Amino acid sequence: MIESFKLKNVEFKNRVLVASGTFGYGDEVSDLVDIGKLGGIVTKSLSMKPRDGNPNPRITETASGMLNSIGLANIGVEKFISDKIPVLRKHNTIIIANIAASSIEEYCSVLEMLEPLSGVHGFEINVSCPNVKEGGLSFGTDVKLVGRITKELRRRTQKPLIIKLTPNVTHISEFARVCESEGADAVSVINTLIGMSVNINARKPKIATTTGGLSGPAIKPIALAKVYETRNAVKIPVIGIGGICSWEDAVEFFIVGASMVQIGTANFVNPSTGITVAEGIKQYCQKNDIDDVGKIIGTLQTNKTISIIDSWL
Ligand code: SIN
Predict the structure, then answer these.
(1) Which residues, given as ranges, of the chain have pLDDT below 70?
(2) What is the DSSP code (8-state) at residue 75?
(3) End-to-end CA distance of the chain, in Å?
(4) Ligand 1 pocket check: which of 191, 210, 215 to mutate, most ligand atoms within 8 Å of Cβ?
(5) Whose Cα sits closest to atom 2 in ligand 1?
(6) Which atom of ligand 1 is the closest one to the Cα of 69?
(7) DSSP bridge partners of 61
(8) Closest-lying ligand 1 atom to the alpha carbon of residue 72
(9) Which of 37, 148, 158, 299 lies 20 to 30 Å (CA to CA) from residue 293?
(10) Domains in the chain: how many in total?
């Protein structure tokens, strides 16, 4: 049974990754989870300088989901290189460094610092954080800027380059197309949706920054539709993210067109979810005589003449 997946020059042992910001830098949970059974870890976003992030409260639970406004808090790329990479190297899995920045120059500088390191196998570029005033959505909702960022980073790396897209646009497929044409190897679909939650006694938002990013099972149907739209617009692989809690959820994403999946919010409930999902996918394939997970990707049967989403593409 083939579980592995090759992206550019990197072989993932299975198609299940843990999403940025939900697994720290791996070391926090390494006593609880057999990290070597994951397809890979996407690190918390890294910026050039350490960031404290947004004021508290910055997380609140919602129906079937969670709102966060962390504001890209992170230890900064230098500390990541000195303190985290030596630990991450010991785990037998693929490490994708997620990079966030407030200028194109910052994206390039952080990537250039990480590019030569053997402990970093690829990059996921965050152009989609809804919780910062500079960078984040101000980049990710501008198709020309997303194209320029992709082009500049492509020139600087031979490793897999993945762009993480926002769903907070009308047609995510336009953004995926520009990433593909500027040389990205894959796109991650989707980051969180802008949301709010209100304390009715205080008449105040439950999140200090008023809005935050909604994630978890509440967004899974939206994520599936965005993956389907993207997959039908580009040839590069689409990495599906959004509310995946079980192997059944992951299989839905494969059927609509995801080549890999990322587990996000579910890690806060159980950091071993990724491993359970990977094992469940394997058993599903064995039970259904599928010798390669890749064979179910994009196999959704639709009536294209009446499908609304197909009419956009
Ligand atoms: C955050 O740090 O605010 C969340 C990161 C993201 O949504 O990209």
Answers:
(1) none
(2) -
(3) 34
(4) 191
(5) 72
(6) 3
(7) 66
(8) 2
(9) 158
(10) 1
Residue 15 is inside which H or E element, if any? none
Residue 132: per-residue pLDDT:
94
pTM beyond 0.90: yes
Q: Phi and psi (nearest 5°) for 235? A: -100, -20
Pairing of strands 193-195, 212-215: antiparallel
Quote the CA–CA distance of 21 and 245 in Å, as a whole number. Answer: 16
CA–CA gap between residue 140 and residue 127 (Å, rounded): 5
Residues 6+ apart with CB under 8 A from 168: 128, 130, 137, 140, 141, 193, 194
**Cβ(215) – ligand 1 distance below 6 Å:** no
Spatial separation of the C-alpha atoms in residues 300 and 307, rounded to whole Å: 12
The CA R_g of the chain, rounded to the nearest whole Å, is: 18
Residue 229's CATH number: 3.20.20.70
Which of 20, 22, 42, 45, when mutated, tests ligand 1's pocket best, judged by the most ligand atoms within 8 Å of its CB? Answer: 45
Bridge-partner residues for 59, per DSSP? 68
Annotate 172-188 with b (16+ C-beta within 10 A) or e (fewer). bbebbbbbbebebbbbb
The answer to whether the CB of 160 is under 6 A from ligand 1 is: no
The region, left, alpha or beta by phi > 0 then psi within -120 to 50, assigned to residue 136 is left
Q: Tell the residue nearest (CA) to atom 5 of ligand 1.
A: 129
| pLDDT for 111 | 98
Mutate to test the pocket of ligand 1, among 59, 70, 241 (most ligand atoms within 8 A of CB): 70
Comparing C-alpha atoms, which of 37, 29, 49 is closest to residue 12? 37
d(CA 286, CA 249): 17
CA 70 – ligand 1 centroid, Å: 6
Quote the domain boundaries for residue 17. 5-312
Cβ contact 120:95 at 8 Å: yes
Tokens of 268: 């806060």
Helix (H, G, I), strand (E, B) or coil at 266: helix
